[in-house]
Amino acid sequence: MKTALITGTSKGIGLETALAFGRAGHKVFATMRNPAMANDFRQKIKKESLDIIICEMDVDSDASVKDCINTIIKKQGEIDVLVNNAGIERHGSIEELALENFKAIMETNYFGVLRCIKALLPQMRKDRKGCIINVASVAGHISSSPLGAYAASKFALEAVSEALAQEVKPFNIRIAIVEPGIINTQMAKAISVDKESIYPHSKRFGGLFLASLKTPTPPSLVANKILEIAESNTWKLRHPIGPDAQPFIDWRASMSDEEWVDWNAANDDDWYEAVQNTFGLDAR
């Protein structure tokens, strides 16, 4: 049995990951900003008699992260697995998206992960064991408008995770980066059309996500992979997850940077036709 701390467990991938670990017999500290909203989660825990404790933690706050993790370590003794799942998404063109949104995304998706790692790593290093799983995204490899701000946070997370893996392997601490594609979550469903934008990209991607979600990939698929990584002895760094994840990454890698820019700068008719021909999706 392992002890796992999972962030962002109020819904989606985080919630399913907490349940997956609990059902597998592990002790779980499921953290979220507002535990008062977790009534349905509590009912599932009670109904299934799972060893899951819901904790309040805001990854945007130094004090909140330190207090929560220090309290758990004092009570539990150690944490074997850290799953950094908490994340937010804001979308829009670089010109039109407010600077506050860029800052908010980085605060949660990047600095929030760093806060948790820095709070827990001394214990793992002292014990010479541990596993840290960072939930990034295919957007950590592919930057597309109107997801530039979100992609920036995931590119940053990929980079710092790769550096961290080099630093902590001598201490027997495993680092894994999980890279979901389009998953049936509230975040994916929120990729909406900005009718006021002077750029066409939000309309295009809103249609692309809507078309993809007609054959949805459940967040439990990501949760089960995270559990598999934690329970294994793998040192594999990157784990694309979902039927579209590796194909998206390979597709981008097949193009030069200039071809990628041209593809996304194409007129609407050419772009929609390319999506239809490449992915079989009608994004109109």
From TrEMBL:
InterPro entries from the UniProt entry: NAD(P)-bd_dom_sf (IPR036291), Sc_DH/Rdtase_CS (IPR020904), SDR_fam (IPR002347), SDR_oxidoreductase (IPR051911)
Record SUPFAM superfamilies: NAD(P)-binding Rossmann-fold domains (SSF51735)
Alphabetical UniProt keywords: Oxidoreductase
CDD domains with a match to the protein in the record: 17beta-HSD-like_SDR_c
Keyword Oxidoreductase found: yes
Superkingdom per UniProt: Bacteria
Keyword RNA-binding: no
Pfam family, one: adh_short
GO molecular function: oxidoreductase activity
Family under the similarity heading: Belongs to the short-chain dehydrogenases/reductases (SDR) family.
Protein name: SDR family oxidoreductase
Source organism of the structure: Bizionia saleffrena
